[in-house]
Automatic annotation (TrEMBL):
Belongs to the citrate synthase family. The keyword Lyase applies. This is Citryl-CoA lyase. It comes from Rhodococcus jostii. It comes from the Bacteria.
Length: 272
């Protein structure tokens, strides 16, 4: 219903609206123009960027979603499975429990890394580096600032892929093929080259980090990058719950921890 009464509140949206017979999304007829014609990844990009991605952008974006969907028995997957054990009546509770674990150590780093690179680029005075040496110097400066804050460099290190995360070179390769290897990815690569000098040990550039760099190069808002990691992991967690139903492990996790619990007398425990 539309009204011209100035006292009636108005709530603007360019996303979804509906009448009794139509649903409109992003200015298109959802049923007639979008269903069966637009992929889910394309729609997710479009909903945030308010523009359709180019084919190259879509390839990079969907590669990110694929890269971050699942990585085995991560804290997010374990949290989802154990929550489902306790509340099988709440699929959404299990998925939410997993998503809540997307943070500064695992998964949420997609955004942290995008922000970290973006800040370094944004606060850089003068033109962007033109040579690998200049990128390396910029990376060293960014690492030093992070060290000064007493924080880990987001996007560096992985509990499994000590000698290199297989996702990283592939995503950089795809972005390069599509002409979308921009300053965030270039700085990220320099961070990798400089990790030994800057951090004191050679650490791999991880998948969560490279995804953040690639998404930032697509021009997606850095404040929302965690959302794309969660979107991807949502699909992975649904898969984890489906497998939990077919082939449960959560009860064994529970029993393993519970049956192997060791009582420590609080009066003799030396840890504060
Ligand atoms: C990732 C991990 C906790 C690994 O720990 P680790 O246990 O292997 O190594 P640590 O024992 O902590 O480190 C050994 C020594 O190197 C130092 N050191 C390590 N990293 C350092 C660093 N970045 N900056 C400076 N110093 C560092 C450390 O201080 C220690 O020094 P020291 O105490 O002197 O011995 C650690 O790197 C870290 O916090 N990284 C930053 C956050 C980050 O980028 N997270 C993304 C991880 S990927 C991801 O999220 C996707 C996902 O994994 C997730 C999922 O699905 O849930 C998937 O795959 O899809």
């Amino acid at each position: 219903m539309t009204t011209t009464d100035p006292t009636t509140p108005r709530y603007p949206t360019s996303l979804g609206t509906s009448t009794a017979t139509e649903i409109n999304l992003l200015g298109h007829d959802l049923a007639g123009d979008l269903m069966g014609k637009v992929g889910f990844g394309e729609l997710a990009f479009w909903l945030v960027a308010m523009r359709r991605p180019s084919p190259g952008e879509l390839r990079v974006f969907e590669s990110v979603l694929v890269a971050l969907a699942d990585h085995g028995f991560t804290p997010t997957a374990i949290a989802a499975r154990v929550t489902y054990l306790s509340a099988p009546d709440s699929l959404q509770g299990a998925i939410a429990a997993g998503l809540l674990g997307g943070g500064s150590r695992f998964l949420g780093v997609t955004e942290d890394c995008g922000q970290f690179l973006h800040t370094a680029l944004d606060t850089h005075e003068g033109p962007l580096p033109a040579t690998e040496d200049e990128w390396d110097q910029m990376a060293l400066d960014a690492i030093a600032r992070q060290k000064k804050l007493g924080k880990h460099v987001p996007g560096l290190g992985h509990p499994n892929h000590k000698d290199g995360d297989p996702r990283t070179p592939v995503l950089i390769g795809i972005a390069t093929e599509e002409g979308l290897r921009g300053p965030h990815l270039q700085l990220f690569e320099a961070i990798g080259r400089m990790s030994e000098r800057g951090v004191g040990r050679a650490l791999p550039l991880n998948g969560a980090g490279v995804c953040g760099a690639a998404l930032a190069d697509l021009g997606l808002p850095v404040e929302l990058l965690r959302g794309f990691a969660l979107l991807a992991r949502c699909a992975g967690l649904l898969g984890q719950i489906a497998e939990e139903r077919r082939n449960p492990i959560a009860h064994d996790i529970y029993m393993s921890v519970d049956r192997n619990a060791v009582y420590v007398d609080p009066d003799t425990d030396p840890t504060p």
